[in-house]
Amino acid sequence: MNQTEVIAKLQTIFDTVFLEPVVLTPAISAKDVPEWDSLTHISLMVAVEKAFGVRFRVGEVETAKNIGEFADLIRKRQQEP
Amino acid sequence: MEISDLKALLISGNPDFWPKLAALTGQAHDFEELFLLSSWRKKARARNLARPGPEIPPLKLALLGGCSLYPLHELLAHLCEIQGTPVEVWLGDYDNYVAEIMDETSGLYAFAPNVVWLLPAEGRCQYSGALTDPRTVQQAEAVKTAESLLELARRVNTLTGAEVLLTNFRLPARHDLGAYRSHTLGADWTFRKWVNLELGLNAPAGVRICDLEFLAARLGGLRAADPRGWFETKQPGSPALLFELAREAAHLIAALKRAPKKVLVLDLDNTLWGGVVADDGLEGIELGDTSPRGEAFKAFQKYIASLKQRGVLLAVCSKNDHDKAVEPFEKHPEMVLRLTDIVNFKANWEPKSENIRRMAPELNLGLDSFVFVDDNPAEIDIVRQFAPEVTTLLLGPDSSEYVAQLQDCRLFEPGSITAEDAERTRQYQAEAGRQALAASVTDMDSYLASLAMEASISEFTVVDAPRLSQLINKSNQFNLTTRRRSEAEVLAVMNDPAWVGFSVRLKDRFGDHGLISIVIGRAVAGTLEIDTWLMSCRVLKRQVEETVLNELVRLARARGCHRLEGLYLPTAKNGMVRDFYGRMGLTLTAESDTRRVFELTLENFQPRPTRITLTRRAYEPN
Fold it and tell me: Per DSSP, what are the bridge partners of residue B593?
């Protein structure tokens, strides 16, 4: 999966969790989306790990500054056996 | 109904959102689903989505703990609202619970909670010394750890009057220390177990244990653990564990307001036994220890009997002719439940909802204290529709799961301690004393005497024939001749006066072993030839052997025989009884590779003394 494909799949997860439609771009981040609070964040992370079959390492999700970096992190973890 | 439909209802502001939300919450089976539903509930609230029904005043719930209480409290608040016990939540600061409880000017006391849920810090439930310290020292620290937590719980209970839910400790699930972990109280594994026992056994009134040890074990220790969740946000466990923990706390909170159910209404056919008694007959229903299915139904009856012991009333509601329905209760040898166990017996052709409705005034109880179990979805549906106050439980499809279904239904959990329970406690104490006595006896005879064994010996009967044949055909080890017989052949033995055939049932004060031994003999010219002697190995050396020998001699004499002849036919599996007849005092008279023949002259035979009381002898119904 390339970054665009990962973001497209993330879009479907965001569509489930958020009430107000959010259009994901590599540059978008939590501070751009009012509904993206800490509660929603937990929902998102659990859903993402499940949907992509990945497990992030301790502390690394918060290092991703935007959706593009987050998608890259997912890709990195996807490449692990 | 899908989650996406629910979202559509929320966006369009449709009040149908609320019942659908409740339905989906009831079906939610993981953290993710429940959490999403919870966040939508909050969003619906924020949008002021109109809600049907009266507004219930919320319970004031304080959460305190040595871990992050977020998002745990979200799940709990959601479950509480959906189950009709909405809560207003006050959250303590992370790991500040000791100060919050000790300081009477803290926000906790200003909040004036009705319920306090305390989740103490796992990191402080750890033995501080060395693994090799004396056990008394380790134990004293465990007791002290528990006592200081109970003291906190007592204090907050006394000062606020709130019911306290005190969470105990999860056990580790890693191999650390290996087998040695069980040899010291200094290991987390043993230390926490000890603390948990102290907490539960010493919890005062007003303090209830939220059994995290149990919940994590049920889920699986590895699945319950989540070190990343701890390091990132101080979560007490994995999302899966949070889900279970929130459900447990919600259940405990609901139980504060709701009495346990009082009556268990039972269907009969394919619920208490396998098959349909009116079609299959008394002999045809599956019940008892000689078939796996029959054993499962018997186990279910035993569990139901244990509920009766706890004070649950048992009733029967069956679509049957009354006479047919009561027959197994009166005549079937493997029935655990008897008519005296049933407080209300309705077997007729009226709808079950009507029958249960009639039971309520007869027992002077509200319909909402009834639970109805049936294996038939149609019957469950009728009761749901026409007696909706009754809680229903659909059994199946596998009868081996019936016990588990009832054990997990959470409807008969004892609430608080009553005078009646205290009386029961005294009875248990007396029983514990008897068991301690048995454990302390050193010689075999006293042990056997302490078992209070009772045997019932019966000639072959038509009702027993299926069980007799099954045991004859599956018994391998304690089986002198391994001669197999079909049901028809068993009946042939029964109907031929030259043959004797009897079976033994044994019970002791720990329970009923059921049918455990079968003997077949044939009288030929003054000799009773023992054709078959088999026994279940689980009652080996309980003097059933002697009891059978005594009975054989008695029956031989009654038929004018003066001699017993025993035959051993070796197989790959019955080596354990190769010398059995010799041990019983018979003399070896002939031997080859394929057979050993023994005899016993009856003239001077004295019955062997045993510690088994006979309640019935063969061919002597009373």
Answer: none
Taking the Cβ of residue B12 and every Cβ of chain A, the question of whether any pair is shorter than 8 Å is answered with no
Instruction: Tell me if the pTM is above 0.95.
Output: no
Using the beta-carbon criterion (under 8 Å), do B71 and A39 form an inter-chain contact?
yes
As a whole number of Å, the CA-based R_g of chain A is: 12
User: What's B481-530 look like in SS3?
Assistant: CCCCCCHHHHHHHHHCCCEEEEEEEEEECCEEEEEEEEEEEEEECCEEEE
Given a cut of 50, is residue B507 above it in pLDDT?
yes
> Which DSSP letter does residue B617 get?
B
Token digits of residue B104: 């009477």
pLDDT tens-digit map of B292-328: 999 999 999 999 999 998 888 999 999 999 999 999 9
Res. A58 pLDDT band, cuts 50 70 90: very high
Q: Which residues of A touch B227 (CB under 8 A)?
A: 58
Q: List the one residue out of B319, B324, B347 whose CA is nearest residue B278.
A: B324
* Residue B36 to residue A19, Cβ atoms within 8 A: no
Interface of A with B in 28-47 (CB under 8 A): 38-40, 42-43, 46-47
Q: Nearest 5 degrees, angle CA B11-CA B14-CA B16? A: 125
**Structural tokens at position B546:** 């002697």
In this predicted structure, which of B166-170, B310-314, B370-374 has the lowest mean pLDDT? B310-314
Which structure tokens are listed for B394?
Answer: 């659909």
Q: Are residues B557 and B602 in contact, defined by beta-carbon separation less than 8 angstroms?
A: yes
Segment B528-547, tens digit of pLDDT: 999 999 998 778 888 999 99
Phi, psi values for residue B358, rounded to 5°: -70, -30
One-letter amino acid of B342: I
The predicted structure's pLDDT at residue B441: 58
Cα angle, residue B395 at apex, residues B382 and B345 outer, rounded to 5°: 65
Give the CA angle between residues B282, B284, B290 to the nearest 5°: 105
What CATH code would you report for A3-79? 1.10.1200.10
Please state, in angstroms and rounded to a whole number, the distance separating the CA atoms of residues B119 and B113. 16
**For chain A, domain boundaries:** 3-79
What SS3 class is residue B126? coil
Nearest CA distance, A12 vs chain B (angstrom): 12
3-class secondary-structure state, position B556:
helix
Instruction: State the SS3 of B429-443.
Output: HHHHHHHHHHHHCCC
Residues from chain B that touch A47, judged by Cβ atoms under 8 A, are 32
Q: What percent of chain A has pLDDT over 90?
A: 69
Q: What is the value of ipTM here, to two decimals?
A: 0.89
Q: What is the pLDDT of residue B436?
A: 55
The answer to whether B612 and B455 have CB atoms below 8 angstroms apart is yes
Instruction: Report the amino acid identity of residue B64.
Output: L
Q: Does A64 touch chain B (CB under 8 A)?
A: no
